[in-house]
Recover the amino acids of this structure.
C-alpha cells in the first residue's frame, strides 16, 4: 500500500534564506574575495565576518541573508564561485533546527554543526532583513 500520510509543506513557509560561507585561516582570503564580489552583484543583508565559531557554526564564517526571489540567481552564482569553500544554504521557517540540519543544502564539503544550539521551533521565521549591499554589477557578470 502506498504511504498516504505524506502531507507536503508549502514553500510559503520559507520567509528567507541564509547562505553561510565557511573558511579557515588558509581560505580566509578566498572567503573575503567572495564576500566582496557577492556584495557588488546582489542586494542582500551581509553579516559580519565571524572569525570565531558562533551559534550552531563550528568554523569561521559569514552569513548572507536573502529574499526567496534571489535564490535562483544567488545560489547558482555561489555554486560557480565558491572556489573550494563550504557553503550551507538553509531556508528560514519557524523550525530553525530542521532548517539547518534536515532541510538545508551544502555547496562543497558539508561541515558538522551544533544543532542543539538552535531552537526546534520559534514563533516567527527570520526575515532577510534590510539590504546592506549596494550592487554596481549585474549578477550574471
Ligand atoms: Zn543561518
Amino acid at each position: 500500500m502506498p504511504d498516504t500520510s505524506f502531507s507536503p509543506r508549502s514553500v510559503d513557509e520559507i520567509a528567507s534564506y541564509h547562505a553561510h560561507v565557511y573558511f579557515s585561516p588558509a581560505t580566509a582570503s578566498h572567503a573575503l574575495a567572495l564576500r566582496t564580489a557577492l556584495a557588488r552583484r546582489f542586494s542582500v543583508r551581509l553579516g559580519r565576518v565571524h572569525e570565531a565559531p558562533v551559534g550552531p557554526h563550528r568554523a569561521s564564517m559569514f552569513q548572507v541573508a536573502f529574499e526567496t526571489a534571489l535564490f535562483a540567481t544567488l545560489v547558482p552564482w555561489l555554486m560557480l564561485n565558491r572556489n573550494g569553500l563550504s557553503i550551507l544554504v538553509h531556508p528560514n521557517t519557524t523550525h530553525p533546527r530542521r532548517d539547518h540540519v534536515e532541510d538545508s543544502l551544502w555547496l562543497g564539503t558539508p561541515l558538522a554543526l551544533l544543532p542543539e544550539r538552535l531552537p526546534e521551533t520559534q514563533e516567527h521565521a527570520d526575515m532577510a532583513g534590510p539590504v546592506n549591499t549596494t550592487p554596481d554589477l549585474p549578477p550574471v557578470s
